[in-house]
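>> Question from a student workshop board

For tomorrow's exercise we were told to take the sequence and the ligand below, predict the bound structure, and bring the output to class. My setup keeps failing. Could a helper post the expected result so I can at least see what it should look like? The ligand is thiamine diphosphate.
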Amino acid sequence: MAGTGSLRTAAQILVDALKIHGVDTAFCVPGESYLAVLDALYDAREAIRLIVARQDGGAAYMAEAWAKVTGRPGICFVTRGPGATNGSIGVHTAQQDSTPMILFIGQVPGEFADRESFQEWVAQIERADRVHEYVSHAFHLAMSGRPGPVVLALPEDVLTQTASVPDVAPYQVVQASPSASDLERLRGLLARSRQPLVILGGTVWTREACRDLQAFAESSGLPIACSFRFQDLFDNRHGHYVGDVGIGINPKLAERVRGADLLLVIGARLGEMTTGAYTLVEPPRPKQNLVHVHAGAEELGRVYQGELLINSGMPQIAAALKGLNVDGSAWRAWREQARADYLEWTKPTANPGRVQLAEIVAWLRERLPEDAIIANGAGNFAGWISRFYRYPGLRTQVAPTNGSMGYGVPAGVAAKVAHPERVVVSINGDGDFLMNGQELATAVQYGLPVIFVVVNNGMYGTIRMHQERDYPARVYGTALQNPDFAALARAYGAHGATVEETAQFAPAFERAARETASSGKPALIEVRLDPQAITTSTTLDAIRARALKG
Ligand SMILES: Cc1ncc(C[n+]2csc(CCOP(=O)(O)OP(=O)(O)O)c2C)c(N)n1
Ligand SMILES: [Mg+2]
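>> Workshop helper replied:
Here is what the output should look like for this input. Compare the format with yours to find the bug.
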């Protein structure tokens, strides 16, 4: 670090600021607009690892996913205009998922000044002597209250200006705490409840917060559900876990959400996916007594009025709940039945064709080590993972709540960068995979032995499903002609295999695990799924027949 007072360019001050705020990894696609930053990163290469992606969208997803698996802000650099536009998908994902992330955009003065479409704080640094202020503000914004993305533009001419400024202190995480009266009112509501349900979600959880929450679940006897894509906040194997409230929800759990007399929602945003498109919990005043705890005050009362709204960070509420004395005898049978429903729901179901996807996911849940990370993007294939996998704990799931395709490959890469010692399995649809399959090159370049799975049904299956429901037997724009994925993987320098029946999966996976361990290179397993196998519980033909009957 150049240190206090010496003359540094804005780019050097920026990179020094990143070091001060604890950054050790950054993702980018380079651009001539921020060469000065690249040069400062060159000097800082011992402290900050730079991962260069093949598409700015891949880089931005990587930074977002990196934040998801570390709990620290993901850092991404892209160039102006085209780079920023490509990268915006990562910003959208970070916004919807409340993920702390800072996207730095190399910028030309005057051009492309404000991108309101990014929905979040967008600022441009205009002076070298204010770099620290802007960067510090960006970290505080990204991490405090409801976390999210921040976009900072770096005009090219400013980056080479010099200034003599003192260094700053690292950012602090600012989170609210529940008040004593909040907790007293919560205790009162719980005391009158017979059918309560807890729904966990959102970010700003820590391992300790999850442990505290588990202790509270055990002492209070409460049943715990998780919101869409936040299934790893509570050990799915635990007797109090009752399932996820998202796409493809267990119908019995949906009934339970609807029929609960008290919903204690902790950290979840109560968006479309978590409310069954606003049917399970009705806005603006739900039938259930709603207690909503969220880190962002602006999120409380936004869609739903609640009986009790608590602005709190997750560690703060979890620690407080751990100390709350609640008698759970009234809902014991209700919870046990909810758990029994979950176990019944997650027994593998059969699908048409030679590949049984539920059995493969069930095999993975037995085979993978407890800390393995599962990354995935969006598509119907993901329904098998959320239904049949059992996430054992925090940061074992990396997936986008905004249903953004193309996420699985860069997220797998980022997870392996963050946790090289952990097994990372990235599960993708065929459409999904090819949106960012180029990042296989990044995995090869940096020696990241991720195991990629491509569930190939030869179509944009999700859209075909909706098409058959709304416009039966009028298939259009949803079929895909795919490459030989295993050969494609080999062309990238990765190991490639193809699975055409269930029994081939286990040996293919074991071989991939051996190959990746010995070569340090990634592997890809294409799983050929019968196109009729459209969801975990129905077929395309059945959907079409129902729609044609009207
Ligand atoms: C970036 C992006 N583009 C388009 C969509 C709309 N979309 C949602 S699912 C889907 C198809 C997914 O296909 P695939 O990955 O093959 O999975 P499948 O549903 O076939 O299992 C599409 C096009 C989206 N969610 N995200
Ligand atoms: Mg598909």
